[in-house]
């Protein structure tokens, strides 16, 4: 039966539809097998940076250096679509801290006078507002810049995280009362109930410590998940594993049991030091990387196969280039993240911290921004991350049968120097859609009119080019990232890269055994 539409209904309808047009993503998000999807069922890939707001001052870092909106814009400009925003539980369970301490008071009590002057200069409107309102202001600013937010309960007491000795490492530790934690989660979930860009809550960062058990993990994490979902059914509920979130293996035999569906995401952390101090230094890198692929699958990657999204919510390394183990790990980790097409959040956005572990102005070596929160810290590093920012597969992603041949060391991909079918090969932006195809043990071929595939007509140290006489290209090493073929002269070579990023043939190196050898210039991940 037809019903007349009142002018006010019409007005509301128009208002709502105009609002929805301005949103880049159709919230809320949910899950569909291992993918996170929007309300149209299309994949949304989380490509986030962590923005710490859980240290002693309980103010998102950087606000003494740049205006909030400037930082939000910078995040967007770097190609991220989301922020994992950390918060200490006390912000929700201690009303004095949340409502009665202003930014000014919080900075003054830690002697951060210089930093306070910075707040006056760059964010004068927040000087005299309570800490909870600054937290909200940051979330709203991110929303204005079309950035999604994952609210991450990082710890209980404000301060740097994490060690086994912390009094808030695991449930029922002196500073980790599960009831207060659930209360805090509910409050946080409720505060952001109608804030569209808050798409997920990460319930507790890096559970760990002497008292951690899988039994208690299920007991409390399931309750916490229900509490969040009841208070805010829109958000994804994101659960961190044991042992500093390096271990979800216990889920293999006993999945999480919840009353609701399509909202559960698991999270995993992976740093070089996760693999054991000194390990990346004392092994052959190619062998060790392949062992780490297997380890990551065992400790977390398997959840993708079980049909749950896995959010690699912390990873990263020293961006100043001097971290020997971190550099070795980084190419391996990137290859893995690219192949799995993971959702992720890099640690961290920070240029410099106001006050960390008793020291003022500590630079974040892993940070995406420089110490002024102005420039990109290391553009090569950002380029390497940019390859894993866009989604490659999943629901609603235009099916693309072309392969990418990713060179994780540089963050570039194998491309033709010119569009001719006998072109030489070089490295170029991975956004260039080269129609590569590859069949195992087969040919590496550019699809198109003329037959154009990797040819054997080259020699050690010489350029590699395309042609009609295909040679067989094999993934020969444990990581499957060495691409080897036989030259017309009969020598076995691997694809390599010279100092000008030309792709050349070289003797295959560091395949196994040798500990001092660096294979990454010969690593190509086909995905
Ligand atoms: C906040 O401060 C006011 C005035 O100093 C005080 O009366 C009130 O009890 C405080 N509230 C909390 C929650 O600490
Ligand atoms: C609550 O926060 C205030 C302000 O930081 C602090 O003085 C007080 O000790 C906190 N209370 C508890 C129970 O931690
Ligand atoms: C571990 O649990 C025991 C007993 O509940 C408690 O006394 C202790 O403080 C906990 N350890 C840590 C490091 O929190
Ligand atoms: C930037 O990072 C790359 C590796 O990602 C490293 O080789 C280089 O030394 C770094 N540059 C600077 C200026 O720190």
Automatic annotation (TrEMBL):
<dbReference type="InterPro" id="IPR017853">
    <property type="entry name" value="GH"/>
</dbReference>
<feature type="signal peptide">
    <location>
        <begin position="1"/>
        <end position="24"/>
    </location>
</feature>
<keyword id="KW-0378">Hydrolase</keyword>
<dbReference type="InterPro" id="IPR001547">
    <property type="entry name" value="Glyco_hydro_5"/>
</dbReference>
<dbReference type="GO" id="GO:0004553">
    <property type="term" value="F:hydrolase activity, hydrolyzing O-glycosyl compounds"/>
</dbReference>
<feature type="domain" description="Glycoside hydrolase family 5">
    <location>
        <begin position="67"/>
        <end position="350"/>
    </location>
</feature>
<keyword id="KW-0732">Signal</keyword>
<comment type="similarity">
    <text>Belongs to the glycosyl hydrolase 5 (cellulase A) family.</text>
</comment>
<dbReference type="GO" id="GO:0000272">
    <property type="term" value="P:polysaccharide catabolic process"/>
</dbReference>
<dbReference type="Pfam" id="PF00150">
    <property type="entry name" value="Cellulase"/>
</dbReference>
<keyword id="KW-0326">Glycosidase</keyword>
<protein>
    <recommendedName>
        <fullName>Glycoside hydrolase family 5 domain-containing protein</fullName>
    </recommendedName>
</protein>
């Amino acid at each position: 039966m037809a019903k007349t539409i009142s002018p006010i209904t019409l007005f509301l309808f128009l208002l709502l539809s105009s609002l929805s047009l301005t949103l880049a993503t159709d919230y809320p998000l949910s899950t569909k097998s291992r993918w996170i999807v929007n309300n149209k069922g299309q994949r949304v890939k989380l490509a986030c940076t962590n923005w710490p707001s859980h240290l002693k001052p309980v103010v998102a870092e950087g606000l003494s250096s740049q205006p909030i909106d400037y930082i939000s814009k910078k995040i967007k400009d770097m190609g991220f679509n989301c922020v994992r925003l950390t918060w200490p539980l006390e912000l929700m369970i201690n009303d004095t801290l949340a409502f009665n301490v202003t930014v000014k008071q919080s900075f003054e009590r830690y002697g951060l006078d210089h930093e306070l002057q910075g707040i006056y200069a760059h964010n004068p409107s927040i000087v005299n507002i309570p800490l909870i309102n600054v937290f909200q202001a940051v979330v709203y600013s991110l929303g204005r810049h079309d950035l999604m937010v994952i609210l991450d309960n990082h710890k209980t007491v404000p301060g740097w995280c994490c060690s086994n000795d912390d009094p808030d490492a695991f449930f029922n530790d002196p500073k980790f009362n599960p009831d207060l934690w659930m209360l805090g989660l509910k409050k946080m979930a409720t505060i952001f109930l109608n804030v569209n860009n808050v798409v997920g809550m990460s319930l507790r960062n890096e559970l760990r410590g002497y008292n951690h058990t899988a039994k208690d993990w299920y007991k409390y994490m399931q309750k916490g998940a229900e509490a969040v979902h009841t208070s805010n059914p829109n958000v994804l509920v994101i659960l961190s594993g044991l042992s500093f979130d390096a271990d979800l293996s216990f889920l293999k035999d006993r999945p999480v049991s919840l009353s609701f569906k399509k909202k559960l995401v698991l999270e995993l952390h992976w740093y070089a030091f996760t693999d054991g101090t000194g390990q990346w230094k004392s092994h052959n890198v190619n062998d060790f990387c392949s062992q780490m692929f297997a380890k990551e699958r065992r400790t977390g990657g398997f959840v993708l196969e079980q049909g749950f999204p896995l959010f690699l919510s912390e990873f990263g390394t020293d961006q100043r280039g001097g971290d020997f183990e971190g550099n070795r790990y980084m190419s391996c980790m990137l290859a893995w993240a690219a192949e799995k097409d993971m959702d992720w959040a890099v640690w961290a956005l920070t240029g410099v911290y106001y006050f960390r572990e008793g020291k003022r102005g500590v630079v974040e070596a892993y940070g995406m921004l420089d110490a002024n929160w102005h420039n990109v810290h290391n553009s090569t590093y950002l380029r390497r991350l940019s390859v894993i920012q866009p989604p490659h597969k999943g629901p609603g992603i235009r099916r693309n049968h072309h392969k990418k041949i990713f060179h994780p060391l540089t963050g570039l991909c194998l491309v033709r120097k010119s569009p001719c079918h006998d072109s030489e090969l070089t490295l170029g932006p991975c956004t260039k859609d080269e129609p590569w195809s590859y069949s195992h043990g087969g040919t590496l071929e550019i699809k198109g009119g003329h037959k154009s595939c990797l040819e054997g007509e080259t020699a050690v140290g010489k350029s590699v080019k395309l042609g009609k006489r295909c040679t067989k290209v094999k993934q020969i090493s444990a990581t499957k990232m060495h691409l080897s073929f036989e030259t017309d002269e009969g020598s076995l070579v691997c694809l390599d890269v010279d100092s000008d990023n030309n792709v050349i043939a070289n003797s295959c190196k560091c395949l196994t055994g040798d500990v001092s050898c660096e294979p990454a210039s010969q690593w190509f991940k086909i995905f």
